[in-house]
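Deliverable D4.2, example record:
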Amino acid sequence: MGTEKANEGAPVQLQGEIFRLPLPSSEKPSEIFSNIVHQAQYNPHFLPLKFDQEQAFYATALSVRDQLIKRWNETYFHFHKNDPKQTYYLSMEYLQGRALTNAIGNLEIQGAYADALTKLGYEIEDIADQEKDAALGNGGLGRLASCFLDSIATLNLPAWGYGLRYRYGLFRQRISKEGQEELAEDWLEKFSPWEVVRHDVVYSVRFFGHVEISSTGSRKWVDGEIIQALAYDVPIPGYKTKNTISLRLWDAKARAEDFNLFEFNAGHYESASQLHIKAQQICAVLYPGDTTENGKLLRLKQQFFLCSASLQDIIARFKERRDGKGTYQWTEFPSKVSVQLNDTHPTLAIPELMRLLMDDEGLGWDQAWDVTSRTVSYTNHTVLPEALEKWSQAIIWKLLPRHMEIIEEIDKRFKDMIRATHCDMETKIPVMQILDESNPEKPIVHMANLCVVSSHTVNGVAQLHSDILKTELFVDYASIWPGKFQNKTNGITPRRWLRFCNPELSSIITKWLKSDAWITNLDLLSGLRQFADNVELHAEWSSAKMASKRRLAQYIFHKTGVSVDQNSLFDIQIKRIHEYKRQLLNILGAIYRYKKLKEMSTEERQKATPRTIMFGGKAFATYTNAKRVVKLVNDVGSVVNNDSDINDYLKIVFVPNYNVSVAEILIPGSELSQHISTAGMEASGTSNMKFALNGCLIIGTLDGANVEIREEIGEDNFFLFGAKADNVPRLRKERENGLFKPDARFEEAKHFIRSGAFGSYDYGPLLDSLEGNCGYGRGDYFLVGHDFPSYMDAQDQVDEAYKDQKRWLKMSILSTAGCGKFSSDRTIAQYAKEIWGINPCPVP
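Output generated by the structure prediction step:
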């Protein structure tokens, strides 16, 4: 697949190659069997005379990739011929998960591949387990991007994704007695069978250098370092459609001419290959540590590398398609191209598009700004202060001098516009400006402000979050441009997150709805409501849940050595470890539960609801308090799980190295899921949607998408606790004034930790964050103490509800039935219509 021109008819000759567009039939088990054997025999990655499970996976994956590439090429040619407006989704991360099961599921060839592998002596489940998750993301941001690509392909929309090809990912998490350890991910140790290296798609990306001004006043960025961006394409298939789109990942490499052979032969190996080493650093890891100047430079390099390579590619495709229809006009660009920024990481796409249009294409400022501001749209994903990126002006001047000039001019013109047309808001300029020079020694660039000023649309990702953007975070911008702000509540793909990961429950849903149309029209799940009291459905629902719980229990024992009671309540919190997500609240509640169980008599314990509490998630390597939480969870688990007095009533498990494939085991087996962030701090969350879709009940705050989930599934089917978002500022102020009186249970749990009951590790600094009266990181900024009493009361309600299995099963069914709104198909259809302005372009 490339940027070649397609002629009508088949076969089609393109620059010396023949692409036969009609899809050959190769979905019979016998043909698939032969293709897998062919891959094993002739692929240079395999050793002769060896065909173990790992090689069987690679041969199978390559066979599936052949199927994808046929559809992929046809999709590209179809888009080229019809020339629709196309969206390009820029994201620093994608959390894809395993591709084999998803691909054969979307292509509806699971059975054929299962039969073929059986003939080879393997079970398809065992072969699928050989695949390593692509280490291209970390959390909800990356998983959302991957769900979106699945929906884009399924809805036949003309769009691509752009990202970076990280060799070692964020990190592989290992849990030891010391807590979390970070190791390099090895997902590319052998090779990825899904990616296609594109040696014909290479762009030069410049760093450093200076701006040269010609005699006519035109400006040109020159000198510095040149790194090449090499494309790797990953095909993304839609469900029950021929449309297969591309996730284009960029890898960095140095030019051959930058290898100094003279220096190398003189024994100066490092200086000879200095630029090659620097190139390798760019795509080495996701989110490199940024506590040092070098770390900050590398992060900014990554962001610009993604933006520059992607925009050069987008412009090249625009020119190539327009050349086929006569001379292209830049005024047409926004009617043919939409660029979506997934959070602030790709913000540099704005000044880079301006630079390319002005310096390379010769447009004036006004025309370039018109094109850029009608092309780019921005999704905000957070209201957390530390996540709203701010870059030192000095570091941008150093790395990207031309872009800093452009940002300065955007800021100047924006402030001039405020003074000229909104003079009553001139006093708001200090909080709205892009360049903040309130500290002259360390002036900064507000990337979110740059996005808001430069984008035609800004959207939040849940109704509460979008309201906060308009009434708090970006309130002044919203008063100037009220039509610029939209809500697009996030969603998840029902293919991966129900149909494929929970086949037992999926079959039951299809049986009772008498159709599998719900897989692409999730609103149809509402039809389950009429059966919520049906005894037969209850029995089938319970059986499916128990099958998933057995799988999960086996996985936990295999990974941790902890044996859990399959009849206990499976209670799960899996997400990035962060203080605002409040895993600390969860473990404090578990500690209090453990202490009370210890104090009970044998007869009293027998009345308790047995519970297995599971945690999963990674703490950033430099986030000390988050790593302390991981350590605490594991220390508490070590004590609780080895206490014979309460062994039948409570287990606490930390599932290591949480990723998509782990989630696909945890979520179907879950019965209670904790989404307990401080109200107003979680933009949306999507794991809550995945759990609810699989019939798992939620205990949570009125935060992010929890608000809408509770509305859709019914208030009686949601265990609510905690402060509301609009009360949080007042509660923090009361805390500062010394008015907070802690609950006795909260104090008891903290004291139990300080007593040394869970080991000699000093948890003082972690507990200190819950004490005092003020300060971020002190004074219980995240309101753990305030919400603890209502949290424990809600947990008591959970215990009572679980004892009544008839009631619990009804609530579970109603949870699934109410999840129709939370399909990413719905979200993407809204983006396409209301932001991107693109229409379906199905391959016939």
